[in-house]
Structure formats: structure tokens, C-alpha cells
Predict the structure.
Amino acid sequence: MSHKAGGRVAPLHVDTIAGRTSRTVLLLHGGGVGGWMWQPLIERLGHERTYLVPDLPGHDHSANQDYRSHRDTVDALVRVIESQAGGSVSVVGFSLGAQLAVLLAAERPDLVDRVTVISAQAKPTRFPAATLAMLGLAAPLAKNERFARAQAKELFIPADLFSDYLRVSRSLSTATLIASVGENISFTIPPAWASFPGSALMLVGAEERQMMKTSADSLAQVHARGAAEVVDGCGHGIPLQEPAWLAERLRRWLPSSH
């Protein structure tokens, strides 16, 4: 898969995979990984569309800046779209990236025509301070290869992408980890989501926590044109567990041309 580095206007590293049409898809990765997590999906989706694949703040090639907030990240993504897309984009987000996809669609519907939300938590976690305190204590373990291998297995990282995962784990700062997880576990559905004029598809794995399934249902219920689907045989890792299935689902979901 050939890449062209971009993202000079926005303070993010962005890979662009040029397609045969001007239809652009923005792919937003989850926390603790990087844009490389979309490789299996893109290989199966083919090259009809153009893909913008940023590394979110604090992650991989954007590790030179810590993750500070969803607010700052959405602003950076707006600049990516305005500078690199020839109009509105379709957005596909996973986990942390799925929350950003919801915010982006809600706040800038002029830039987003439709959104696929994969495994987004939309209900705050109880006792977030305790969760973050434990996370801070455990943060150094992420740099240990044996621990990283165990985590990669939980996240369904394929063997050929483990070196990418280990690179991100070792470069992820404690500040980024705490800020991104803190935003993730406190996320609530923005009021403007209800009036987003585009279509919205919520996907959640059948083996995910009940909170994740409830979140998908809530996002679909709030949005008038939203639909939630449960993906059999998947946990919290649909894009990496079932890239062929997801490619086929998105092929039917995404418009083929402007």
C-alpha cells in the first residue's frame, strides 16, 4: 500500500491513499494504535476511493504532540479535511476515533456527508478518577514487549502489524494515555448529533461489553437516520477481526462517487 505523507496545514501526520474517484473517506483509528490499523480494510476496499488516514495526536507519527482533548483533535481534523479533501468526506471511526467521528459530524455537518461509528463508548464510566490513577501507574508496562504482545492479542492486532503496535506503545506518553482515555471514558453524545443531516451507521461487536452495545443503540436512537448493527463473532476490534466483512459492509454503505 503506497502512501504519500501530508498534513502540513494541520498539526497531524496524514497518509493519503489516492483513489480513482474524488470521493474521500477519513479513517480515524482507536487509542493506542495508529493509522496503520486500517491497512487490512483498505486492501479489501480497493482503490476506487481516496483515503485520508491521520495519526491522532500523541500516536505514532504524530507522537511529537501529546493528546490534549477531543476538542483540539476535532479542530485539527477539520483543518485536515479543509486542506486535503475536495469537499465533504465520509468518516469511519473506531473506538476513540469513533467518538471523534461523532463530534466531527455533529459540529461540522458541512464537511461530513455520512459517518460509520465502530465501537464508540457513549456513556461515561463510573469512578473515572480511579481508572485514570491505575492507568498512570500501569503506563510504563506498555513499553515492555511481553506486555505489549498480550495487549495486542486483546486488541486483535495481526502478527504482521505487531511491530507497528509495539512502536506506538513505546512512543505513547503517559500524558497522551491519560488524556485520551480520560476523554474516552467521559464521552457523552453531543446535542448536535441529533440534527446531523447525513446518515449514520453504528457497529458494535456481539462480544463487546454491554455498555458498548447500549452506546450503539443510544447513538442510533438519538440520530433520526441512525442505525445500529451487532457484528457476530467480534469483540472490540471489528476492523482487525473482520476486515473483509467490514469492507463489504462499507462498500454498500459508502457512496461510490460525488
The chain has a mean pLDDT of 91. Residues 4-253 form a domain with the Rossmann fold fold (CATH 3.40.50.1820).
